[in-house]
Amino acid sequence: MPSIVKNLKTLACCLSLLLSVLIVSPLVVNAAQDSGSTGLEGRISAPAPTTAATISFPRSGTVVTDSVITVTGLCPSGTIIKIFKNNVFAGSAQCIRGSFSVQIDLFSGQNDLIVRVYDDLDQAGPDSAVVTVNYNSPNNNVAARVSLTSNFAKRGANPNETLIWPLAISGGDGPYAISVDWGDGSTPSIISLQFAGNFNISHVYAQPGVYTVIVRAVDKNGSVAFLQLVGVANGASGQDSAKGGVTQNNNTKNTKIIWWPLVGIIPLMLLAFWFGKRHQLFVLKKRIDQL
Length: 291
Description:
Blueprint: H1 2-24, E1 27-32, E2 54-57, E3 62-64, E4 68-74, E5 80-85, E6 88-94, E7 99-105, E8 109-118, E9 124-127, E10 131-135, E11 147-149, E12 154-157, E13 162-170, E14 176-181, E15 189-193, E16 197-204, E17 209-218, E18 224-233, E19 253-258, H2 260-290
Parallel strand pairs: 3-10, 12-18
Antiparallel strand pairs: 1-19, 2-4, 4-7, 5-6, 5-8, 8-9, 8-10, 11-13, 13-16, 14-15, 14-17, 17-18
Helix pairs in contact: 1-2
């Protein structure tokens, strides 16, 4: 009997400690607001793409007299492709149903084209085979050629928020006229620049989705530059069209405090304290009997 009471006293001490922890720091879990379920969250990493894109058109060795051409080919679905001409970024597009189409402008003379695929984490896959295209420019003055470039092949913002895209223009003679088709059916933006250099374009998308952005530049002599990009309006989208679409889980989180463990612990503590008190009385009585 004394050993049983002693064990109950030890249990009471443990339960007291547990109760104090629960009172100071109640159990808290994160739950999805929509379903009420609990879980862990985090960004899951994935391996970079392993399948290269291929250029179907133009064929290697093609000679053209127009500075702007359309490059088409095959690619892993769901990726973004970037085209480089002589190792200079020339344009980007979303891979839709296993294929891509991008309009680019060319340097005078030889242009070595490659296509590189990127996933949503901007991890690069292998390069395509090199396709060489020769552009016979009617004007061999390289300085007269206008060039558009950007450090961003893809850029996004939330719907109804302003998307700002830095670009740069070089070559040719100012003033320049810049036209931007944002791919959502809105009226193209028109910008006038007096001098070459860095500038920004901006737009507000009303609906979520992935859009093809076409930027054209013309200088005072009629020299043309062309740049195709991928604009993203973040959010849930059910689209599967030429615009593409993105899906984003916008579930918010709330906090739940779990008090139910106390319902079972409190009665056990009361019982343990009662046995502990009886044990103390038993010890005192035994000592008195020994006197």
